[in-house]
UniProtKB/TrEMBL annotation:
<dbReference type="GO" id="GO:0046872">
    <property type="term" value="F:metal ion binding"/>
</dbReference>
<dbReference type="InterPro" id="IPR024654">
    <property type="entry name" value="Calcineurin-like_PHP_lpxH"/>
</dbReference>
<keyword id="KW-0479">Metal-binding</keyword>
<feature type="domain" description="Calcineurin-like phosphoesterase">
    <location>
        <begin position="1"/>
        <end position="140"/>
    </location>
</feature>
<dbReference type="Pfam" id="PF12850">
    <property type="entry name" value="Metallophos_2"/>
</dbReference>
<dbReference type="GO" id="GO:0016787">
    <property type="term" value="F:hydrolase activity"/>
</dbReference>
<dbReference type="InterPro" id="IPR000979">
    <property type="entry name" value="Phosphodiesterase_MJ0936/Vps29"/>
</dbReference>
<protein>
    <recommendedName>
        <fullName>Phosphoesterase</fullName>
        <ecNumber>3.1.4.-</ecNumber>
    </recommendedName>
</protein>
<dbReference type="InterPro" id="IPR029052">
    <property type="entry name" value="Metallo-depent_PP-like"/>
</dbReference>
<comment type="similarity">
    <text>Belongs to the metallophosphoesterase superfamily. YfcE family.</text>
</comment>
Length: 155
């Protein structure tokens, strides 16, 4: 199973991000979505789970989105929230992957036996950080992640 991870679109869904996520079995958006049309477009690719980010607060369409969610995909427990600071110190043993956004800094790191992933920002560039998404591969109980830096087409 291949899960596409995207975050911090801030109202901009790039064609390069859509292409990178096109053949995924499920998508996770880690917040700061920006506008509901982004969720509509991502839902057309494959099933989508999304959380709201701090910049989505107070927006009527985003109020239905949870701030955090725990889900099971491909037999693997995943905890999804926008800010790493909001991840509880004690997660259930079933959670093997934590997905966050917010910092715009892509990250794949193992902490206390769990894989932590921040796909970075797929929206407007912040500072000199890359524009990226991530892919989470689940196969026979094995978990592997990869960052995908988007090669932007000049406009």
């Amino acid at each position: 199973m291949k899960i596409g991870l995207i975050s911090d679109t801030h109202g901009l869904l790039r064609t390069e991000a859509l292409a990178a996520l096109a053949d995924c079995d499920h998508l996770l958006h880690a917040g700061d979505i920006g506008k509901p049309e982004i969720l509509d477009a991502l839902c057309k690719i494959t099933p989508l789970t999304a959380v709201r980010g701090n910049n989505d607060e107070g927006l009527a369409w985003a109020s239905a989105l949870p701030e955090r969610i725990e889900l099971l995909l491909g037999g693997v427990g995943i905890y999804l929230t926008h800010q790493a600071a909001d991840v509880p110190a004690h997660l259930p043993d079933s959670v093997r992957v934590v997905v966050t956004g917010h910092s715009h800094k892509p990250l794949i790191e193992e902490r206390d036996g769990r894989l932590w992933i921040n796909p970075g920002s797929a929206g407007p560039r912040r500072f000199k950080l890359p524009i990226s998404v991530a892919l989470l591969h689940l196969e026979n109980g094995a978990v592997r992640a990869e960052l995908v830096e988007l090669q932007l087409t000049p406009t």
